[in-house]
Write a structure and sequence with these properties.
This protein is an alpha/beta fold. The protein has helices at 13-24, 64-74, 88-93, 95-116, and strands at 4-8, 28-33, 54-58, 78-81, 121-124.
């Protein structure tokens, strides 16, 4: 049975590499692409994958109906949440949007998952930036490292 993966942020650097990796493992890959005002080159990192095992659809982590529709239809085995506002400086310039996308977007995704594919495994990407300059005694950061 072919596994199905759903990737938010599939058209970004990490999402495109993850899609290629999962295709190499014989997954069927689906992705959500946030529509912006300039549609050109929006999926340039994954153009070669679309139609070759990858399907994308426009949506947004803040648009619950798009998440409900996609997860209800796809019923993925695995969900990779890589979509986020990830630029550090911009996160300070537009903090409300950053929190909405990175926190409420995750909540929306998890709630949609709970409703439509509760047995799916979830990977939540985050940033080492959360820890600041804090490190453990050996110089490394872990989930247990104080922020």
């Amino acid at each position: 049975m072919i596994k199905k993966a759903f990737i938010t942020g599939i058209n970004g650097q990490d999402g495109s590499y993850l899609a290629e990796y999962l295709l190499g493992k014989d997954y069927k890959v689906y992705g959500i692409v946030r529509r912006n005002s300039i549609a050109e080159h929006q999926e340039s990192r994954i153009d070669h994958l679309v139609g070759n095992g990858v399907e994308t659809e426009y949506g947004d982590l803040l648009d619950v109906s798009s998440l409900e529709r996609m997860l209800g239809t796809i019923k993925p085995d695995e969900i990779y949440n890589i979509g986020a506002q990830s630029h550090v400086r911009i996160s300070f310039d537009i903090p409300q949007f950053t929190v909405q996308t990175n926190a409420l977007g995750l909540l929306n995704l998890l709630e949609s998952m709970r409703q439509h594919c509760p047995k799916a495994k979830v990977y939540q990407a985050s940033s080492s930036e959360m820890f600041g300059s804090s490190v453990d005694e050996d110089g490394y950061q872990r989930e247990s490292t104080p922020m």
